[in-house]
Amino acid sequence: MFKVIITQRVDFLKERNETRDALDQDLCRWVMAAGGLPFPVSNVLDEVSLLQYLHQINPDAVILSGGNNVGDFQCRDNTETLILDWANLHKIPTLGICRGMQMLVTWSGGTLNEVSEHVGKRHDIYGDISANVNSFHRYGASSVPEEFTVIARSVEGTIEAISHRDWPCEGWMWHPERDLPFSLIWLDRFYKLVTRG
């Protein structure tokens, strides 16, 4: 099994005055179905501790999970920025899912824009990838930095998937873990992303 670092969303429970890291168990199941072993990473680690964690785990891949918007929680943005810097430096295969793709765009200097009709809907995507996918996002990218290639768009032109030109790194605006049973298309694509790295 290959080892996969997975970032976590941040949830603030006002009634308990608690801030929690959270990860959908189905994303861990999805990683295992693809042949991986998931290692969630906390958003409380400082730079030194996070780099030690990455060194100790020595992952074969990274997943930036969904949930939250970029800018909602600085601790998560900081964690994912450091992980992306490290993964890019070492060319570790990386997948950004929904918010994770948004983070890839902003981390590389791109900008996000608000989109409509993309929360709780299914729609078709076209390009190098053509499929019918789920959608749970309020923000998307109208363009991406030059180091990325757009590999799928929605009918109205919203960017739905991107691929880095010289690093095994992709961003998908859909949640493969939310389609049950898991689609073999996305499991196979993730497996190939990891193994080509």
From TrEMBL:
GO molecular function annotation: hydrolase activity
Cross-referenced PROSITE patterns: GATASE_TYPE_1 (PS51273)
Keyword set, alphabetical order: Hydrolase
InterPro entries linked to this entry: Class_I_gatase-like (IPR029062), GATASE (IPR017926), PuuD-like (IPR044668)
Xref: Gene3D superfamilies: 3.40.50.880
Domain of life the protein comes from: Bacteria
Coiled-coil region(s): none
Domain Glutamine amidotransferase intervals: 55-178
Official protein name in the record: Gamma-glutamyl-gamma-aminobutyrate hydrolase family protein
Source organism of this protein record: Aeromonas piscicola
